[in-house]
User: What shape does this take?
Amino acid sequence: MSYGVTNEGATMNLATSAHTRTAFDVDLQGLVRMAAEMGGLAERQILQTIKALAKKNADLARQVIDDDAALDAFQTKIEKKGIEIIAQHQPLASDLRETVSALHICSDLERIGDLAKNISKRTIAIGNVILPISLIVGIDHMAQMVMQQLKLALDSYASRDVSGARAVRDGDLEIDVLNNALFYETLAHMSTDTDNMAVGTHMLFCIKNLERIGDHATNIAEAVDYMVSGRLPPSERPKGNTANFAA
Assistant: This one.
């Protein structure tokens, strides 16, 4: 009597395995799509909050604050889906890295939304106070750099591009340099008149929030690098940020 696996049984096992793999791929693709959509919302939040700051548009700033709830909802939805994927499919190796990286990325995107919301709150507090043109231009330039970093990080996630992700990590230094320059320019503006102190403090927080958005873009890039290569990035990230409130 033979107790070996029959051809029919082997075929069924292969079919089951293929079905399981297909189900996992569908779930993972859905997770990636949600993360990409959340990334688009985060980009829009940054654009809107910088526009509100530059135009002193309190109504637009309030809209950014209200829209942050959509990013929070996305994070909750993605985290729930990611946990379901891990529980149902028990992915290993690269599949597990894909799933966990999506969760890390959505967490950074949620923080980016919070930072954009904080800038909008500062915008409302600043009101119609006239700021030095050079400072406004510098902040706008910093915002554009941050947007480029975030876009490159999200593009590298979509295309699984390790070189693009590493370029984001290296590019963070430029944001740090500009952060330093704007920090000290704002301090100089505050020192010319005590009436500038309150508004200058709000501007310092806006500048710092932009720098932190750049850091979160770098976090996303590092998650992409790990997801694709399977190797953690060097522990010491290139940093050029020497400006802080203690200084």
Observations:
- Confidence is low (pLDDT under 50) at residues 12-16.
- The domain at 16-229 is CATH 1.20.58.220 (Methane Monooxygenase Hydroxylase; Chain G, domain 1).
